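ok trying this again, last paste got cut off
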Amino acid sequence: VSRDAATITETVARLQETMVELNGNNLLGLVGITGLIILVLAAIFGVTLLSVTISSKRFAVRFTRPLLKLKEGAEIISSGNLDYSLEIGTGDEVELLGKAFNKMAVGLKEYIANLASVMSEKERIGAELSVATQIQADMLPQIFPAFPDKEEFDIYASMTPAKEVGGDFYDFFLV
C-alpha cells in the first residue's frame, strides 16, 4: 500500500508540475495575444485619426476657398473695378451667393452710371437757372434812389425769389 501511495503521490506531483508549466505557458500566450490586440487597436485608431484629420482639412479648404474668393472680389469691387466677375462652381449656397454678388456688381455699375447721368442733368439745369436768375436780376431797376430829383418821396425795392428764379418783376414810373 505504501508503494502504491508513493506512486500515486509521485504521479500527482508530476501532474501538478505539468499543470503549472502548462498554465504558465498559457498565461504567456494570453499576454502575447492581448498585446497583439492592443497593437492592432492602436494601429486602427491611428489610421482613423489620420483619415479624419485629412478629411477635415480637405473639407475646410473646399469650404473656405470660395469664401476667400468672395472676400477678394468684394475688395476688388470696393476699389472701383465694377467689371470684376466671380466664378464659383461649388453647386451649393456659396455658388448662389457668388451669383448674387455678380448681380450686385452689375446693379452697382448701372446705378453709378444712372447717378452720373442725373448729376450731369442737374448741373446743366443749375447752370441754366443761374443764367435765368442773372437775366431776371438785370431786368430790375438797379439805380436808387429811383428819382433823385424828387425829394418828396423815396422808393426802394428788393426782390428775393423763393427759388433760383422768381415770377415777379417791378419797375418805377413817374406819372
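PB: full thing came through this time. DSSP finds two helices and no strands in the chain.
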